[in-house]
Amino acid sequence: MCGIIGFVNLDQQQPANERIARAMNQAILHRGPDDEGFYVNANVAMGMRRLSIIDLAGGHQPISNEDGSVWVVFNGEIYNYQELRQGLLARGHQLRTNSDTETIVHLYEDYGDDLVQHLNGMFGFALWDERRQRLLIARDRMGEKPLYFTQTDSAFVFASELKALVEHPSVQRRINLLALRKYLQYEFVPSPHTMLEGVQKLPPAHRLIYETGQWRTERYWQISYGGERLKISEDEAAEEVRHRLREAVKIRLVADVPLGVLLSGGIDSSATAQLACEAAGNRVKTFSIAFEEKSFDESSYARKVAEQLGTEHYEKRFTERDMLDIVPEIPRLLDEPLGDGSLIPTFLLSKFTREHVTVALGGDGGDELFAGYPTYGAHRMARLYQMIPQFVRSGLIEPAVASLPVSTENLSFDFKAKRFVRGASHGAGTRHTIWMGSYDARQQRELLKPEILAACPDEQVFDEVLGYDRVNGNGNIDLVERMMKLDATHYLSECVLFKVDRASMAASLETRAPFLDHTFIEFVQKLPVEMKLKGFTGKYILKKAMRGRLPDEIIDRPKKGFGMPVAKWVKGELRGFVRDIFAPDRMKRRGLFNVDYVQRLLDEHERGVADHRKLIWTLLMFEMWPLAAS
């Protein structure tokens, strides 16, 4: 696991400045504290920071082919590299190391840009073809590893994180107002946008080719629903899910350093731990954290799984003070704002786990693949809700829901009911975003200054989801599968995996996600939707696959999530901190937001007449973003 940086000067006669490359690399020291390396030649510079996982002695980067005409810097892991390596040797290639990185330059010699089709892994890499004066950068299929880029007046620049990219002197720090509006809606910035004007994220499953001063991107893989279904019984499907997931876990257990499993007590991480125990052949280390706040604590479930599996289990209890102390540190962890409060426990778990191992497997992706979020069932309920006459909805149901007492507990009834009613009358994609996100169009019109609204029309802000409102254009894709695809290509890659990458890399921990193995995804996509969401039971076939191997209590417990008591904090322990960040004079100097509206949100939340936790937290994370003041 590493971080990468680089740039190509547009003027081929302008030598690359190694000092700039070193400054960019230093900004991502946390991603690779074990080693660094550079390739600097003529107008090109590439660098990397390395967290040593495979071939500890021989995996130094950059790595070239036999004659030094092709060079690569690489972030991630290629899980099928041993198979690729044997094929390369059989075709006459000479490999000097046993690292997965070296396979990339030789695959390029054989397959060119299509080398990405042969990789099973998580990655962001940059490859320089010296003969052709050509740069290829690429990102893994699901977006586990990040990659940013921009073309300025003087250079094409790329890096694993924004904080490294802005170390190049030609990169400007201007806020992207369209990205700001998207962030306020979604709680994250979707690809290809970033919060900096002129800078882009390479989307998942894309490659970029730069040559002769021009760049273009190409998609090389995509999630596909609505195709031919497998004709398979539930018992056969459950067995195949278990077998294929076990294989995905097995290849992710390869490492030359200590390895474990992140165990939350939910079915996804518990299934990963159980299959790791089967595949490892020895005792597996598992890690979980506990919290004082009972409605947010899942440690008892993690302990129950660990006891049944006989793992070497590590648990650490964090106090509310421990969590609160992380809040001012969030800008150090992130290079773009993120409104997901679960970043805090994810970082704490990563930091604790890193005390014992260097690599950890997790359960990310299970909800999106097997319809695990409550919102999928809620979409079916919304269809029924829309059949109720409008005057009954607006005259009886909505006022009754609005009058429910406000609770600060995790996923409380009033929180879920109010969000359901708020979005239920909209089209599928829009209501999904309302349920999952923060500021809808109406709230943004109250929050933002008129000139920002005029510069970024609503249709541009919500273009990622508007297509999902309509059945036409989506073929025969079931409503639930449309929302699963939206989450997998949008929320999972841009929010969940962004959070996990930054939190784990801040602790110099590599995380691996077996559910995101692309061959496993391609199989699961072909299963009938009823095997994923049966009635209102999500993850039906995954639960059937793990029945008898995990405690029934784990399999049958409702989805909870990795939440934080944000609603309580904002009106309690963090009140002074939040008020300082949202000081009227400070906000007026920025000139982005309606100060009176923000103060009203704070007042209503503190008095307990409304639950504005998501609105306040999302805005707080932007106001704390260190590049915002530049």
Task: Tell me the structural class.
Answer: alpha+beta
**Number of helical segments with 4 or more residues:** 29
Largest sheet geometry: 6 strands, antiparallel
- What is the residue-averaged pLDDT? 91
Distance between the termini: 30 Å
Ranges with pLDDT <50 over ≥5 residues? Answer: none
Number of strands: 19
Strand order of the largest sheet: 2-3-1-9-8-10
Amount of helix? 40-55%
- Report the radius of gyration as a whole number of Å: 24 Å
Task: Explain how this protein is built.
The protein is an alpha+beta fold and 630 residues long. It has 29 helices and 19 strands. It has a 6-stranded antiparallel beta sheet with strand order 2-3-1-9-8-10. It has a 6-stranded antiparallel beta sheet with strand order 4-5-6-7-11-12, with helices on one face.
Pick out its properties.
single chain; 630 residues; alpha+beta; six-stranded antiparallel β-sheet
Give me the secondary-structure topology:
Elements: E1 2-9, H1 18-26, E2 35-41, E3 44-50, E4 63-64, E5 70-78, H2 81-90, H3 100-111, E6 121-129, E7 134-139, E8 148-151, E9 155-159, H4 162-165, H5 177-186, E10 200-201, E11 206-211, E12 214-219, H6 234-251, E13 259-262, H7 267-280, E14 285-291, H8 299-309, E15 312-318, H9 320-326, H10 330-333, H11 343-354, E16 359-361, H12 366-370, H13 374-385, H14 390-402, H15 413-423, H16 428-436, H17 441-447, H18 450-455, H19 458-461, H20 463-466, H21 479-506, E17 510-512, H22 518-525, E18 533-534, E19 537-538, H23 540-546, H24 552-556, H25 566-571, H26 575-581, H27 584-590, H28 595-607, H29 613-624
Parallel strand pairs: 13-14, 13-16, 14-15, 16-17
Antiparallel strand pairs: 1-3, 1-9, 2-3, 4-5, 5-6, 6-7, 7-11, 8-9, 8-10, 11-12, 18-19
Helix pairs in contact: 2-3, 6-7, 6-22, 6-23, 7-8, 11-21, 13-21, 14-15, 15-16
